[in-house]
Amino acid sequence: MARKLTLFFSFFLVAWFTQLQRFLVFGHGEPKVPCYFIFGDSLVDSGNNNDLNTSAKANYPPYGCDFPEGVSGQNLGFKNFTPPYNTATNEDLSTGVNYGSGSAGILEDTGCHLGDRVSLERQLKNHESVVTRLALQLQNTEEHLKKCVYIINIGNNDFINNYLMPNNYPSSHQYNLEQYADVLQKHYTQHLKTLHRLGGRKIAVFGLGMLGCAPAEIEKYGTNGKPCVEWINDAVSIFNNRLKPLVDELNVVLPDAKFTFINMSNILAPRGGEPLPNKPCCLVREDGQCIPNSIPCPNRSLSVYLDSFHPTEIANRVLAQRSYTSIYTEDASPYDIGRFARES
């Protein structure tokens, strides 16, 4: 039954997982999956940070300028739109919850200089609470949860708001990039096993995008004539290259589950033609977010980034489409999210 949800959007990037949700839920006929759970950072945060004491929220224009229902305070008429955890009611739980939190990371202290945030560990604790509440509503919670799709898009801040900020965090002094990737992988593995323990069986693990192409990093470090900061993209690759083997290992040690790796860097890599400029489409303040109520560039389809960190709607659409139905074998391994929806 269609219903209205009043939400404050923390970041406009909610658009990409909403596009993905349309593939899963809003196609013709019955939903392809009964429920959809979302974990991650600002790329998926749909309002969980709004009431937190943090600067990592953007519930103001121009964020939402390309989202059909706009930004703060809009009534969203999407059928079964996945609500943020902080506003989810008992009626919402069976169809899914969004736990994403801007500035959150795999590591607990990531993003702490920006204020409060809900780390991945805390997001999983929130999910455990939801599973407990669901057990009071459903006769067979385990059977229900194993049919759901779970996506996790996190790790960006473990670089942007941790390792790449040596004056705020000790990580770059303690570890080289290989060692840091190992630390992240170790923590991530435990978090993914926790999600499996809580009933997750169809789990899509998103890799990191090319963080060295973010306007904020280009402005900070320079590119030596290259399009992006290559050493940052190399650092991201070190971590991303551990995710596919991690997914393969989990599929062996947890054979009742289906894990898959979504290669965001490959999906968003320019292919042919002149690459779009890596410049923010809005006027940005010192922290890289859009200045409130500023006017963004008129043709955002020709821009990769809306602000200094986050992509525009055109990039979100490409990510949603190709994570659901991969075009290249490198996009998703061992299968795309669409296959989750088709298989029992």
Short characterization:
With 344 residues, the chain is an alpha/beta fold.
Which keywords apply here?
344 residues; alpha/beta; Rossmann fold; 5-stranded mixed β-sheet; two-stranded antiparallel ribbon; 11 helices; globular; SGNH hydrolase-type esterase domain-containing protein; secreted; lipid degradation; signal
Notes on the structure:
The strands form 2 sheets. The chain has a 5-stranded mixed beta sheet. Strands 1-3 form a two-stranded antiparallel sheet. The chain is globular. The chain has helices spanning 14-25, 120-135, 141-145, 156-163, 171-174, 177-197, 215-221, 230-253, 264-268, 313-324, 337-342; strands at residues 5-7, 36-40, 74-76, 149-153, 202-206, 258-262, 332-333. Helices cover 35% and strands 8% of the residues. It is of the alpha/beta class and 344 residues long.
